[in-house]
Amino acid sequence: MKKRITADAVRQYAAASRDTAAIHLNAEAAAKAGYERPIAHGMYIMGLAQSLYLAEHQALWIHDYSMKFLKPLFIDTMASFDFEACEDTIHVTVTTETGEVIALGSFSVKESF
Q1: Taking every annotated instance into account, which residue ranges of this chain make up the domain MaoC-like (predicted)?
Q2: Architecture of domain 2-111
């Protein structure tokens, strides 16, 4: 599944989570931190992966999750969320449009009630 990471979505996440760190919202602050442009929150990426998966698998419930971030995911990037099932564990890989792997994770699922 592909999803464009927009500045508006990151601003909404920052407001909801109260994580208003400037590297997520301000190009100048991101540049001072060594990034080419603002970056998405890790928790936003993780939550987005869960939401995208559950949108296609509505009878399941996620009860355990982990994700390792390898690189920052910049604002205004098309991200691919690829899922691979192995019994009740779902492995997720997040990549950019250039094929860079941004994050690797997994979560356990079970049937919802």
Answers
A1: 4-91
A2: Roll (3.10)
